[in-house]
Amino acid sequence: MKQSAEVNNNLASSEPSEGFGLDKxxxxxxxxxxxxxxxxxxAYMLEGFDVxxxxxxxxxxxxxxxxxxxxxxxSQLIMKDSKTARLLFAIAIGLISxxxxxxxxxxxxxxxxxxxxxxxxxxxxxxxxxxxxxxxALSLFASLPVAYIGFQILARQHAATLTLSYIAINTLLLLPxxxxxxxxxxxxxxxxxxxxxxxxxFTRHTLYHTREGIxxxxxxxxxxxxxxxxxxxxxxxxxxxxxxxLVAAALLVKSAxxxxxxxxxxxxxxxxxTLLAIPCWHELATVVFSLPLSELHLAVRFAPVVGFLxxxxxxxxxxxxxxxMLSMMVLALLTYILCLEQYSYISTIAALLSNLLVLVWGVxxxxxxxxxxxxxxxxxxxxxxxxxxxxxxxxxxxxxxxxIGFCLVMLATVIERxxxxxxxxxxxxxxxxxxxx
Length: 437
Prior knowledge:
The chain has three domains: 1-235, no CATH class; 293-392; 396-437, no CATH class. The chain is built from 14 helices and no strands. The protein has helices at residues 2-46, 54-77, 82-111, 129-154, 159-171, 181-202, 211-232, 237-259, 263-287, 294-315, 320-342, 345-365, 368-391, 397-434. The N and C termini lie far apart (57 Å).
């Protein structure tokens, strides 16, 4: 009896492992299918209008969106598979941005300035106003229920608000303007509206810290990402591809931190995102930001690299300090070039602002290396700026000496008044700083 009981217990303990293995296979199939749909959507948006027939290019995305949403309902109601249902509706909601991007291309092709179109924006739609209005109306008619049902599954509490906000943001993609002042303003409005949603809603509710909530955040990033990539293609195909690489790197960091649980795979994803983002930004800054002043060009080239490395360090549990050290090395190099090699007012002020931003970020996030390096580099930048100001004073030496003496006397007054407080505060602050990661 005891032997049979032990055999039964062993069999019972072995059953979950088999189910666990099947769940793993199901999860792999889900993510491979999602990756295939995302790649197909990217290829669909990059193709010119003259690649496929009119029936295929105008209706395929709308039909796919409806089919995926129907499959999500089938999985939820019939198969009782909530995981697949959530994933299918997330894909369907993402295809709304793809459809609106395609509609924006059609409207731009007929009514916009296509002189600066690239190879990915070939002409050939030749649709009338009634046809465009019909496709737009059907897209809106299909998108509203798909978005509402999908957000009901992903974030039930705010489904109506999320639906209206998502449709409104994607509607901005329909404007037939690109590089004009109005077009750039609409792109900026799309980005700022999304940022406002993140500040007012996504960062304040714990609902959006779950996997489903992070999926909602990524969906809301699709429209501004498409708008920025579409704008970058007007500076050339290389700029467009580099902007796609930057978006992919940012999404990879956010997705890996939320959905990859194995530490080696997560760190590999962060490393791939870093190796993708840095050269893409280098090339994009070279092509797009052709600034007349070399000082500003250097700041634009290196400062975002520091920011991205600090961003990755937040999510990387094992290599966070390494990323922060690398970012501080880049910051020190940037400060050296701007303050000591360029040695101009503009370069020094740019270095000072960059260092102050790193200092504020380090104090806010309670990281030791950014706080120390930001403080030291800020003091160095301020000293260099003071030396530049003193060197350009067209007066006698006694004027400079009097200014230095006045500053020293005022510093003595501050020490006399607050010296005891500083003597006790500085060690406590250093002890607190030494305990930060």
